[in-house]
Write a structure and sequence with these properties.
The chain is of the alpha+beta class. Helix content is 18%, strand content 43%. The protein contains six helices and 27 strands.
Length: 367
């Protein structure tokens, strides 16, 4: 195998696929990147048996073939080279990298031990790439990081012929995003958060184009630009999220989204050690209060439109900030039934994204 490629192009491809490399030292082949040169150019593949990342790059192919080389080492080597053409050559035992006056060699791994890839099968869905990237950024923050409840560590994709619904929850907050899409059937899949995040990163970098999904029973495949990512699905039944979202109505606050976000972040600085931020609502708008016995306290009032009874609720400031960050538009609408029911955040002019956050129960006053 032999090819020639621009340093920046090769380095970017290696940096992208190496994020999918296995960290299991007991399986040497999974620590490598499989490089294949053919008529379509250079293909780079990594896998940890859960997520497989594939990327295609145009190169000056001089000799077809394949080699499995240590992924992180070759990525670091190419990244350190001068910004010029890189010559890469490999046989069964070693690979050689040349750039200007630099020449390095790498011992190859056993390519025959690298897992083979299956052709994706399932329901095909196509969605606008920039929109998909935006949706992933809105939803993934609500996915759980607690491996003790694996079902909540994924992002649910519900697809039909008209659109896709993307959902994540950690039981403390819930994020739902509706997307327009075209598909050839219906599917319901639970994709690991890190896989959907990687696809979202690639989609957000595309100024135009589409994300092509194949949603199967055991795995999902995503194609965006030159990247193809295949992920195993999480087994289990995702919670019935629709019954968690209250009907519209109740007390409603409408406020400048960015101003409210900045106020929550400032006041939240004094809400450490799991202390919540108190949200006081009245006809004048909203008042945010935090206090910590060891640190101090903070108060900030913000003029806003409010319809409903005067009330006080308390929330984790980080959860509220994530919701305000996800909402699109200059103004946000927040609906609350009372201080013990979840708050629902939406864009005032766009309801494609819904964010629900559970309140923190305040201690009852003494006496």
């Amino acid at each position: 195998m032999k090819f020639r490629c621009d340093r920046d192009v090769l380095s970017e491809a290696l940096q992208t696929v190496q994020r999918g490399v296995s960290t299991r030292p007991g399986i040497p082949a999974l620590t490598g990147v499989l490089l294949s040169v053919g008529e379509g150019g250079l293909t780079l593949v990594t896998t940890d048996l859960e997520v497989t990342t594939e990327m295609r790059v145009e190169v000056e192919a001089q000799e077809q073939g394949m080699a499995l080389v240590p992924a992180r080492l070759v990525a670091d080597m190419v990244k350190s080279l001068a910004p010029d053409a890189v010559e890469f050559e490999a046989d069964e035992s070693q690979a050689r990298v040349r750039c200007r006056s630099f020449e390095g060699t790498l011992r190859c791994l056993a390519a025959e031990d690298f897992p083979s890839m299956r052709e994706p099968q399932g329901v095909k869905v196509t969605v606008d790439a920039p929109t998909f990237g935006e949706a992933v950024g809105q939803v993934v923050k609500a996915a759980s990081r607690d491996e003790a409840r694996p079902i909540l560590t994924g992002v649910l994709l519900e697809a039909n012929r008209e659109g896709v619904t993307m959902v994540a929850t950690d039981s403390y907050r819930l994020a739902v995003r509706e997307l327009q899409a075209s598909g050839d059937g219906e599917a319901k899949t639970l994709v690991p958060e890190r896989a959907i995040t990687e696809v979202g990163r690639a989609a957000a970098a595309e100024e135009k184009g589409e994300v092509e999904m194949v949603l199967g029973d055991a795995q999902a495949t995503f194609r965006v630009g030159s990247l193809v990512l295949t992920s195993r699905l999480i087994e289990g039944e995702f919670p019935n999220y629709r019954q968690l979202i209250p009907e519209a109505g109740g007390n409603r606050l409408t406020a400048p989204r960015q101003e409210l976000l900045e106020a929550v972040r400032r006041v939240g600085l004094l809400a450490r050690e799991n202390s919540p931020v108190r949200v006081e609502l009245n006809a004048l708008g909203v008042r945010l209060v935090s206090s910590s016995p060891d640190l101090g306290g903070a108060v900030e009032a913000l003029e806003a439109g409010y319809e409903g009874e005067e009330m006080t609720a308390a929330f984790n400031p980080g959860y509220i900030a994530d919701g305000l960050t996800g909402v699109v538009g200059e103004r946000v609408a927040i609906e609350l039934r009372d201080g013990l029911k979840p708050a629902v955040l939406r864009g005032e002019a766009d309801d494609a994204f819904t964010y629900l956050v559970m309140p923190v129960r305040l201690p009852a006053p003494v006496g």
